[in-house]
Design goal:
The chain contains four helices and eight strands, in the order αββααββββββα. It has about 180 residues and is of the alpha+beta class.
């Protein structure tokens, strides 16, 4: 799928999800921050492994360039790629792992979807904290730079898509846990 198609999907997805999620904690012309917190009923080491080993199983097909989440991989080591293979021999790097601490944290440099075409820098951090009943996951996505569209409005669209991915991850952990 072409990046402009991804932007259209972002716009369309907000209609499917209703109002934007309440996860945008800061938004201005130069950037935004999204924080999503949730609990899963598996220990942090299992939650981490299912996160890094499973994007092909829990990412949403419509938010890929190939239309197939099964083409997505994540190499959970510094310098590792969050990548997608495209039919015909192409590929997309969705991000590069900056920090990997199994069972505790994962951090990627990433400008997801239509953000790739803009002169922006994004950092996606996922923390896995132990709880008596499982794991508290905190996903923080900070994006800053030269937006080619309204960053405040775009933050709502990105939030809706990221929130969907987190919901799908939680469902995946629950199904396979």
């Amino acid at each position: 799928m072409k990046p402009s198609g991804l932007f259209a999907l972002l716009v369309a997805s907000t209609g499917l999800l209703g109002e934007a999620q309440a996860n945008v904690v800061a938004a201005a012309a130069e950037g935004f921050t999204i924080v999503i917190e949730t609990d899963v009923a598996v220990p942090p080491d299992v939650a981490y492994q299912k996160f890094v080993n499973g994007p092909a199983l829990w990412w949403e097909d419509q938010h890929t360039y190939s239309g197939k989440a099964a083409h997505m991989t994540l190499d959970p080591r510094a310098g590792g790629c969050f990548c997608e293979q495209i039919d015909g021999g192409g590929s997309v790097s969705h991000g590069t792992v900056l920090y990997a601490d199994p069972g505790n944290a994962l951090r990627l440099a990433t400008a997801l979807g239509p953000l790739q075409e803009m002169a922006v820098v994004g950092t996606l951090s996922v923390a896995f904290a132990p709880r008596p009943e499982g794991t508290h996951l905190t996903l923080t996505y900070r994006v800053y730079g030269g937006f080619t569209s309204d960053a405040v409005e775009l933050s709502k669209l990105v939030d809706a898509v990221i929130a969907t991915q987190v919901q799908r991850y939680v469902a995946y952990v629950g199904r396979t846990g």
